[in-house]
Amino acid sequence: MGAAVETHCPYCSLQCGMRLEGRRVPEVSAWEEFPVNRGALCRKGWSAAGLYGGRDRLTSPLVRDRETGEWSAVSWDDALDRVAAGFRAARADRGPDGVAVFGGGGLTNEKAYSLGKLARAALGTSQIDYNGRWCMSSAASAGIRAFGLDRGLPFPLADVEEADVLVLVGSNLAETMPPAARHLDRLRERGGRVVVVDPRRTPTADRADLTLQPVPGTDLALALGVLHLLVAGGAVEEDYLAARTTGWPEVRESVAAWWPERVERVTGIEAHELRAFAAMLAGSPRVMVLTARGAEQHSTGSDTVLAWINVALALGMVGKRGAGYGCLTGQGNGQGGREHGQKADQLPGYRRIDDPAARAHVAGVWGVDPDTLPGPGRSAYELLDALGTPGGPSALLVMGSNIVVSAPRATHVTERLESLDLLVVCDVVMSETAALADVVLPVTQWAEETGTMTNLEGRVVLRQRAITPPPGVRSDLDVIAGLASRLSSVPFSTDPEEVFAELGRASAGGPADYSAITYDRIRDEGGVFWGGERLFAESFAHPDGRARMYAVEHRGAAEQPCADYPVHLTTGRVLAQYQSGAQTRRVRSLPDDGPFIEVHPLLAARLGVDSGDPLRVSTRRGTMSAPARVVPTIRPDTVFVPFHWVGANRLTNDALDPASRMPEFKVCAARLARVEEVAQRPSPDPVARA
Amino acid sequence: MAAARLAESLVGADVRLTVLADEHHAPYNRILLSAVLEGTHPADALTLRSPAWFAAQGFELRLGARVLEIDRTASEVVLVDGERIAFDRLVLACGSIPSLPPVRGLVRRDGTLDPRVHPFRSLGDCHRLDAALGPLVEHGLSAGNAPRAVVVGGGLLGLQVARALSVRGVSTEVVEGADHLLARQLGPRAGAVLARDLRRLGTAVYTGARAVRLTDAGLHLDNGAVLSTDLVVLTAGGRPSTALARRAGLMVGRGVVVDRTLASVTDDRIHAIGDCAEHRRRTTGFVAPAWEQAEVLARVLRGEDAEYDGRRSVARLRATGLDVAVLGDAEGADGDVVEVTNPIAGSHRRLVLHGGRVVAAALVGNLSRVGLITQLYDRGTLLGPDEPGRLLLPEPADAPAPLPDDAEVCACAGVTAGEIRACSSMGECADVTRATTGCGGCADVVRRLVGTLSAAT
C-alpha cells in the first residue's frame, strides 16, 4: 500500500479525517478536505499510530486456568469451541437468557449490527446492551420523546458557527474533542457568543462569554429558571409553539414557580447571572443549545435534556438553521452504535424490538421466524448487576468495552464479573476486564480493519484498512461469525462491505435508514448523513409532525452531601486520555500522569493540602487515592476526578435514570482526607444511606 | 401557593381533592407580584396551575368560593352561599391577610378605603394599584412632575414594591416603624447600609417613624413630617389567616397550631400548611417552608410516614438595584459572628457560625458568592477556621505570570512555551510542533511567544 489511505481517528465522536501511510506502523498526516475537522487533530489523533508497535498486543487466544490463574495460548478453533461449549452449557442451565452480550460505542456499525444479530438470531438471548448506555442514552431517550427521532446533532457541526448564542451544557469540547472548539472561535469572530454551563471552569469556558458553574445535578433547575425568565420577558415564540409543538401550556405553567432567586438557591447560580443569560437568549435570532455528558449522566439526565429542549423549542429555534438543540455524542461510534441493535430494546435501523412490524422486517432479513426473536432485555448496568445471580446470565461475551474501569460502582460490577461461569473478552490488549476473563480473543483494531462509523452529526464515515494486522489476530466480525456458525445455522458475513449492505437492508424503513448508503458514496461524498443533512426544518418525526414538550421537575442528585460525605464528586475526561485508557495509556507519546483529585483552594485549605499532596476520596461505594490538584476553576463544594484510570468508577453512583437507565456518573456525595489522616478517622458505616 | 404545591404532590394519589379558593384567579406565584408591578413579568406568567390542569388531574378547583365556617361535628365546610361540602380531611392553606395599620383616615366614613390607599397582597391588589398608576404616570409625564407614593412598611415586600414603583417612574418614599429597614431580618448596621443604597436609588426612607393620619395634605408621621402623596401602599401588618380555625374551636396561637404531621393539635382530621400554620411556635411567611410542608402533608395524606421538622429559610429580596440575602436568623442565631461591613462601598456581609457551620448569614449590597454561601448554609457544611473570612472577602484575581519554558501552551499537541519560542513564525510553529493545529485555542499565546526570549526565571 504505497498511497496514503483516507480514514478516521480511532477515538471520539468527531471521527476526524486523517491520512495514514506505512504498512506496519502508520504515519498520520492531515486530510484537509474532510469537512468535520479540515485537517485539524488533537494530540490523541496525531499520536494514534502509537497504538501500534507496543509489546503488550495480544496475538493469540488465551484461556485462563481458574485454579492457578495462569494463562495459556490456544488455537482459534480451540478457543471458539470452548466459548461455544460454555454458551451451550449456560443456555442448557438457564435458558437463552443465560448468555449475555456486552458491546461498545466504539465498535463499527458493522460490528454493532452483527453483535446484535448474534445475540438475537444465533444465541436467542434478550440480554444484550452496551457501554453507550453510559454515554448519551439520556439525550437519546429525550430526543426520541421530544422529536420522535434521536440523531445527536440534527445538523452538521459547522452550523455551530452560524449561531448567535451557543449554549454548551456540560460539555468540555475544547479538551474532549479539541478540533470542534475551532468552531467556537469562528462563531465569536462573527460576533456570536458562547455560554458554558459546567461546575468546572474548563478550557472550553475560557472561550465563553458567560460561564455558569451550577451545583452538580442542578442543570435541570437552571433550564427551568431560564425558561421562566423567557416567559416573563415575552421572548417565547408563541406562533411557533402553536404550529409545531404540543404540551406547551403545561410546560409554561410549570416554570412559573422557578423565579431567579429560587433557582439561585437550588443551583448556586446567582440571580443576576441567570438574568444576564436569559437576556442574551431573548435577544438573539439564532440560539443553539448543545448538551453533553455533564448534563446527561445523571439519574435525572433525560428530564434535564427535555428541559433544555423545551428552552430551544420555546425560543422557536429547533429546525432553524444555525440554531436548535443537539447532543454532543461522546464515543467514536456513539451514534451508529445505538442504531443497529446492540441496545437492549432495539433492532437495526433504530427500530423498537417490541414493535411487531420491526421484528417481522428484521427477521425477514436474517431468515428467521420473528417469533424466535427475544424481547427487550436489561439495560447495561442492570445487566451487569444481574450477572451470576440466580435470575441472571452466567456467561458473558464482551466486545469493545473495558467494564472494570468504566462501569459505575465498579467494585460491585467486578464482583459480578467474577461470579460468572464464563467470561469471554475480545480485546487488543490485556485490559483490566480481559484480565478477569476465562477466554480472551485477540482482535484487530482501527487501521487494521475496515468499517463505518456514524459520527456525532449522523454522518456515516468509512474507516479504511491501512496496515496489516499482526499475525494471530482476527476481526470482531470473524469472532462473531465463528461463534454463530458453532451455535446456529444463521449465516453471518465477515466482509465489512457485505455486512454493511445487509445492515442497510435491515435498517430500511426504520428511523435510522442506511439502505441508500454505500461505501462508494461515503468515499465520494466525504461521508453521508442518514436522514439528510439537516432535520426538523419542516416537521418532527412524530406521526403528527409536532415536537412534544414535557413538563419536567427538578429532583436533584440521588445522593446529596451529608455530614459524613460533605462534598459533591464529579468525574470526566482529560485531553490526553480517552475513555478507560486501554488505548491511550499505552501510547508512549501521550502523557500519563495518572489520576488526580481536583479541589478548590478553599477546600484545599480546609483539608490542609497543597497541589501534589496525597488525598483520599471516599464515597459509600469505594475509595481511591491520588495527588491533589488545587485549582480555582472548580466549585469550592465539588471535587473532580478523571475516569481514565481504575478507581474513579469505584466511587460513582449506580442510581439510574428511570427513562434512559443512565447511571449517575456525574455526581455523588464524597468525603476527602489527607492520606496520612485516613487511618485515624473512624469510618462511617458504608452501607448506611443518609 | 401551598395549596397548589399540595395538589401537585397529590397527583396520582387515591384522593378526591377539592380546592376552594376565595380569589378568582387560578393559583399563582405570589412571590412575583412586585415583578408584575415593576413590569418585568406579565400577570399570566405567574399562573402556577391552570383550571385545565386541575381538571386533567381529576381535581375540583372552585375559584371565588369563600368559606364561611368549618362544621367539625358534621365534617363539612360551609360556603358563604350556604353550600356545604363534606370532608374526610381538611387542609387549611389560607395564607395570611393584610391588617390595616392603625392610621386614621385610611378608611373613609362610608367604610371604603381612601382611593389613594392600596393594600398589596394579592393579584387583585396588584391590578388595582397598576390601574391607578397608569393615569398618574401619564399625567405626571405631561405635567413634568412624577407621581408620588408612600410605601408603608420597610420589610421585604415593602422594599420590593418601593423599587418597583421607582422603576415605573414614581417618586417613592418608605416609612418603617422600626428603627431600620428589614428589621425582622437585619441588624441596625445592615439596615443602615440598605437605607443608604435605597436613598442612592432615589427613594427617601423614614425609619423609626409611624404613619398616624392620612389627610388631603398627605400622610402624617408621628415625627411631625407630612408626606404629600398620590398613593399609599400598605405592605406591613400581614398576619396568619386564622379566623376560620379560631371559630371552629381549633387551637390558634399566632397561626393554627399543628404537630409534626401538620395536623391541628385539636383535631387531627384538619391540617394547616403555609403562612397560616404555626409549627413549634413559629409561623414562617416564606414560600420554601410552605412548599416543604405541602410535600410532607401530601405524603401524610397518602398514608406514608412523614414528618415536618422545620427548615432553613432564605429571604432573598427581589428588587432591582437592591441586593439582600438573609439566611436564617442572622441577628438572633447563637454563634460566632464573622462580619465585614463597608458602608463606603455600601456592603455588609455577616456569617454566623456554630460549631464551624454557617447557621445564619446576611449579605447586603454585595452578594458575591451568595450561591455558594447558601449551599454551605443549606447543607450544613463544616468549614475550616479561615474559610468564613475568605468567603466574605473579594475573590483573588488570577495573576498572569510569564510562562516558563516548560509550561505547556498547546494542550492538543503537547507543546511547551520553550518549543514555541524556538520557532520563528506561526507557520513554522504549526509545521514543526503542531501547536495551534488542534482546537486552535493557543493561537494568541503562540503569536505572543514565537521568536521571543525565555522568561526570566
Distance between the termini of chain A: 62 Å
Characterize the largest beta sheet of chain A: strand count, sense, and whether it forms a barrel: 7 strands, mixed
Assembly state here? heterodimer
Radius of gyration of chain A: 24 Å
Work out the largest interface and the residue count of each chain: A-B, 60 and 53 residues
- Overall, the morphology of chain A is globular
| Major sheet description of chain B | 5 strands, parallel
Walkthrough of the structure:
The complex is a heterodimer of chains A (690) and B (457). By secondary structure, chain A is an alpha/beta fold. Chain A contains 23 helices and 30 strands. Chain B folds into four domains: 2-91 and 247-301, FAD/NAD(P)-binding domain, CATH 3.50.50; 117-236, FAD/NAD(P)-binding domain; 323-392, FAD/NAD-linked reductase, C-terminal dimerisation domain (Enolase-like, domain 1), CATH 3.30.390.30; 408-449, no CATH class. Chain B has a five-stranded parallel beta sheet with strand order 8-15-9-10-11, with helices on one face. A five-stranded antiparallel beta sheet of chain B has the order 20-21-24-23-22, sandwiched between helices. At the A-B interface, α6, α7, α9, α10 and α22 of A face α9 and α10 of B.
Layout of helices and strands:
The complex is a heterodimer of chains A (690) and B (457).
Chain A: E1 5-8, E2 17-21, E3 27-30, H1 43-46, E4 62-64, E5 71-73, H2 76-94, E6 99-103, H3 109-123, E7 128-130, H4 137-147, E8 165-169, H5 173-176, H6 181-189, E9 193-197, E10 210-212, H7 219-232, H8 238-244, E11 245-246, H9 248-254, H10 260-267, H11 271-282, E12 287-291, H12 293-296, H13 301-314, E13 324-327, H14 334-337, E14 346-347, E15 351-352, H15 356-366, H16 380-386, E16 395-399, H17 403-406, H18 410-418, E17 422-427, E18 439-442, E19 451-454, E20 459-463, H19 476-487, H20 496-507, H21 519-525, E21 528-529, E22 547-548, E23 567-572, E24 597-599, H22 601-607, E25 614-618, E26 623-630, E27 638-642, H23 648-651, E28 653-656, E29 663-664, E30 668-674
Parallel strand pairs in A: 6-7, 6-16, 8-9, 8-12, 9-10, 11-22, 12-13, 16-17, 17-18, 23-27, 24-26
Antiparallel strand pairs in A: 1-2, 2-3, 4-5, 4-18, 14-15, 19-20, 20-21, 23-30, 25-26, 25-30, 28-29
Helix pairs in contact in A: 2-19, 3-19, 3-20, 4-13, 7-10, 7-11, 7-13, 10-11, 15-20
Chain B: H1 2-9, E1 18-21, H2 33-38, H3 51-56, E2 60-63, E3 67-71, E4 76-79, E5 84-86, E6 90-92, E7 96-98, E8 117-119, H4 123-143, E9 148-152, H5 156-167, E10 171-176, H6 188-200, E11 204-207, E12 211-215, E13 218-221, E14 226-227, E15 231-234, E16 238-240, H7 243-247, E17 256-258, E18 270-272, E19 277-279, H8 287-301, E20 314-316, E21 324-327, E22 336-342, E23 347-354, E24 357-364, H9 370-379, H10 387-392, E25 408-410, E26 415-416, H11 417-421, H12 426-433, H13 443-449
Parallel strand pairs in B: 1-2, 6-18, 8-15, 9-10, 9-15, 10-11, 17-19
Antiparallel strand pairs in B: 3-4, 4-5, 7-16, 12-13, 13-14, 20-21, 21-24, 22-23, 23-24, 25-26
